[in-house]
Amino acid sequence: MKTLIEAIKKIKIILNSLEDIFTQEYHNLSNSETSNENLLYLIEKKTSCFKKLTILSQDRLSLEKKIGIFAPYQNHYQLNNYWNEIIKKCIFLKKLNLKNKILLNKKFYLNQYFLELFPSHKTAITYNLNGDLKN
Question: What are 78-101's pLDDT values in tens digits?
Answer without folding.
Answer: 899 999 999 999 999 999 999 999
